[in-house]
Amino acid sequence: MFVDRAEEVAELRALADRGRPALAILYGRRRVGKTYLLRHAWAGRRLFYFLAADLPPDRNRRELLREMAAWSGNAVDPDDYPTWRTVFRLLVQLAAREPLIVVLDEFQYLLRDAEDDAASQLVAVWDREVGDSRLVLALCGSEVATMRALAAGDAPLYGRASWSAASTRSATTPPPRWSRTSAVATRR
Ligand SMILES: Nc1ncnc2c1ncn2[C@@H]1O[C@H](COP(=O)(O)OP(=O)(O)O)[C@@H](O)[C@H]1O
Ligand SMILES: [Mg+2]
Question: How do 22-28 and 47-51 pair as beta strands?
């Protein structure tokens, strides 16, 4: 069964075409089609995709940097990026001259470090350094409660997402409808 996600695809493409930094948040249970949507919507774009594993955030950070080195062809020494703040700064720099989409999939696995909280480090960089960069950053996750809490009223990322969508339905309950929790282009 093909599930038509034409609206979501169009919105995600529009988000990437705006030429402005944007944050997208997408969550829902496993197998509802999150990864497929992001891959499909942004196929052919300059895109770095990272799938976090159920490992300590620090291990994920080092793996992300290794994959970034391979993807970009640049030397990226994980020791030079010891915190999430330095990683997000690197992403912003990579989007300084050319548009860049970064998908951080299963993002909830990056949030388990009390000493180096990825969400608040992201906000620190986003608010002060994202500037004129062309970074579109998509945070995607299957742990619904954690992902929902990420952008809630008392959370660091509150009000930052230009686009967000959620599906709380099971993939086996047809049709797996999603609801957009904020529309594209209404805010930065
Ligand atoms: N729009 C769609 N139409 C048909 N099949 C889809 C669609 N989206 C996802 N799928 C398929 O459903 C399965 C789960 O999708 P996936 O994107 O991996 O889910 P998630 O990332 O939410 O766990 C995959 O086999 C994928 O190819
Ligand atoms: Mg997935």
Answer: unpaired
Q: Can you name the CATH fold of 6-182?
A: Rossmann fold (3.40.50)
Tens of pLDDT, residue by residue over 85-136, are: 999 999 999 999 999 999 999 999 999 888 889 999 999 999 999 999 999 9
The residue whose CB lies within 8 Å of the most ligand 1 atoms, and thus the one to mutate among 5, 36, 39, 144, is 36
From the CA of 178, the nearest ligand is 1
φ, ψ for residue 180, nearest 5 deg: -80, 130
> Under DSSP, is residue 188 helix (H, G, I), strand (E, B) or coil?
coil
Residue nearest to atom 13 of ligand 1 (CA): 31
Residue-wise pLDDT tens digits, 18-47: 999 999 999 999 988 999 999 999 999 999
- The verdict on the CB of residue 3 being under 6 Å from ligand 1 is yes
Cα separation, 158 vs 160, in Å, equals 6
For the chain, which residues make up each domain, given as ranges?
A: 6-182
